[in-house]
């Protein structure tokens, strides 16, 4: 993976975290809704876990936001 792609992944992970925090949702809540452990969810937000498009859409649905908003790099 190139450094540029790695930075984009980290930015998307940061968008997911920021959106979750704005909604006052806990990592535990998102993990429960995704049927994964809190530790596994934490790795998504840290950018350690590569997520599928399906998982991205699931997260967006839980956060009640358009998936494009999560991948929009400002």
Automatic annotation (TrEMBL):
- Which residues are in coiled coils? none
State the source organism's domain of life.
Answer: Bacteria
Q: Which residues form the HTH cro/C1-type domain?
A: 16-70
Q: What does the UniProt keyword field contain?
A: DNA-binding
Key word Endoplasmic reticulum present: no
Keyword DNA-binding among UniProt keywords:
yes
Protein's UniProt name: Helix-turn-helix domain-containing protein
């Amino acid at each position: 993976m190139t450094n540029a792609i790695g930075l984009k992944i980290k930015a998307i992970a940061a968008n997911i975290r920021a959106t979750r925090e704005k909604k006052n949702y806990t990592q535990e809540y998102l993990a429960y809704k995704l049927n994964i452990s809190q530790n596994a969810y934490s790795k998504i937000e840290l950018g350690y876990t590569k997520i599928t498009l399906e998982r991205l859409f699931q997260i967006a649905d839980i956060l009640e936001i358009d998936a494009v908003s999560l991948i929009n790099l400002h």
